[in-house]
Amino acid sequence: MTLALGVLISGGGTNLQAILDAVREGRLDADVKVVISNVEGAFGLERARQAGVETLVINHRQFESREAFDEALIAALKEHGVEYVALAGFMRVLRGRFLEEFRDRTINIHPSLLPAFPGVDAQKQAFDYGVRFAGCTVHFVEPTVDSGPIITQRVVPVLEGDTSETLRQRILAEEHVAFVEALRWISEGRVQIEVGPSGRRVTRILPPAVSE
Ligand code: GRF
Questions:
Q1: Catalytic pick among 60, 110, 139, 176
Q2: What are phi and psi of 22, to 5 degrees?
Q3: Which atom number of ligand 1 is nearest to the Cα of residue 110?
Q4: Catalytic residue status for 176
Q5: 1-103 and 110-212: same fold?
């Protein structure tokens, strides 16, 4: 199925670019209906325009409450016919009504191997901790920050001479692969959410359909 996708961003939008490139090159069956930034002037908006995708700025500072901001996002996404929401470097926490509306249809990318290092500056947290391997996680969003059923993860080594910045770049390159892969699996109807042995919701990735 073609994913009717809305992408929320706050910054440079390299993950957005990876999605747009994959769609253009036929590696991802998705229609990016709208790109919304909560930050005016975010470079990702320019990337969207270049790709001919509609853009919107919905600045959270212009709303009296978190709830009002969430409602504005919901309304804009629905107006554009969005069914799945990709959080591609979107630096606001979404809860409550938003996750009711897009339950199990909101997908986030986080630059750590969750559940390690949730929150901001995850790459630096991992680097400062002295981990030998780091990575990224694509997951469905649940109300607790950076939690929810994991769809895919990719691992990178921490190398001699790394700084948190070189590690960040190595992880970012893998984010681009992981995000597109996860969205492709969803578009192929291969991602199921089920209750795992501990009662936690987890995903099961079905094998690709065999073409006749
Ligand atoms: C990525 O590392 C993402 O995981 C994090 O913010 C960064 C956004 O990068 N949440 P970009 O805007 O996609 O280039």
A1: 110
A2: -65, -35
A3: 4
A4: no
A5: yes
Residue 211 has pLDDT above 80, yes or no: no
Q: Is this model's pTM higher than 0.90 or not?
A: yes
Q: How many CA atoms lie within 13 A of 22 on its CB side?
A: 23
CATH number of 110-212: 3.40.50.170
- pLDDT digits 0-9 by tens, 86-100: 999 999 999 889 999
pLDDT digits (tens, 9 = 90+) for 150-195: 999 999 999 999 999 999 999 999 999 999 999 999 999 999 999 9
Looking from the CA of residue 109, the nearest atom of ligand 1 is: 4
CA of 198 to the centre of ligand 1 (A): 31
How far away, in angstroms, is 212 Cα from ligand 1 center? 39
pLDDT for the residue numbered 201: 96
Nearest CA to ligand 1 atom 10: 89
Please give the torsion angle defined by the CA atoms of residues 166, 171, 175 and 176, in that order, rounded to the nearest 10 degrees.
40
- Which CATH number is 1-103's, of 3.20.20.10, 3.40.50.170, 3.90.1150.10, 3.40.640.10? 3.40.50.170
**Backbone φ, ψ for residue 34 (5° rounding):** -160, 150
> 11: CA distance to ligand 1 center in Å?
7
